[in-house]
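Handover notes (outgoing to incoming on-call)

Open items:
1. GTP 3',8-cyclase: sequence verified, structure written out, both below. Nothing else pending on this one.
2. Nothing else urgent.
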Amino acid sequence: MLDNFAREINYLRVSVTDRCNYRCVYCMPAEGVPMHCRDEILSLEEILKVIKSSTKLGIRKIRLTGGEPLVRKGIINLVQGIARIPQIDDIALTTNGALLPAYATALKEAGLKRVNISLDTLKPDRFRQITRVGRLQDVWAGIEAAWEEGFEPVKINTVVIRGFNDDEILDFVNLTKKLPLHIRFIELMPIGVSDKFPADKFISVRQIKAKISQYENLEVAKKLAGNGPARYYKIPGAAGSIGFISALSDHFCGQCNRLRLTSEGKLRPCLHSPQEVDLKASLRLGLSEEELAEVMRQAVLSKPEGHTMNARGWGDNNRTMSQIGG
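GTP 3',8-cyclase structure tokens:
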């Protein structure tokens, strides 16, 4: 389906939980966020009904997010259910990686195609500082489990924060020389907790790329599997690649192809806009898949032309990234 700005909407990001086993400093406060009761979030059956309905509008790609999606009970059954929907041709998952050693085999067998793993530092002490509770070795075990199960590609999402982890940019780049990892440097977005960060913590993709180019020759690389906005490069002869996601400095709203479904059933046409459509209410009124698709169609037609993060930050929207779905 095309929205009002002739963008083809074919990608749905589904937050299966607002819970997380980490407390990353740019994602949620140290005490966490108020968690929803079980009946406040969508059941697995309701999520599947939304996905089936969305295929009537042309949704073909699903990404499962959270919070941390692997803390959701029944996540394997959900992946199996999505894999049985004929119109869906790609199922991916974004995770912090800590639980992947326990789930990777079952996820692969269930039909998951790809994983993105969040990792913002290669230093154990700094990792603990960022996540407040995590251990770096657990994430590396998750990365290794993804390799062993044959997930391809394995992408690493790295949010760059000036004065905090920008001194590790070249360390991440060096990982790609020998390992089949695809590092994606992401600009810090003023969403939720990070909206209160000082402006000088922001470092643009242009600045990140310039820092790398002082030491390495970058050549344009082919786009990886998936429908993401990253622009990819690689060092000649490297096993992996380097991607850049410029959500603020050179936003990609003109090519945005996605919708977001929050864990409590709100359909969000734009990450930054507070506008949401309550699909949970429609589901629990007993709407058919066709009727639900029509509700979603109207949401697509309300999708704004672009975000306003540069102009006014997160504004009065008090929801965190973990509550929306990354």
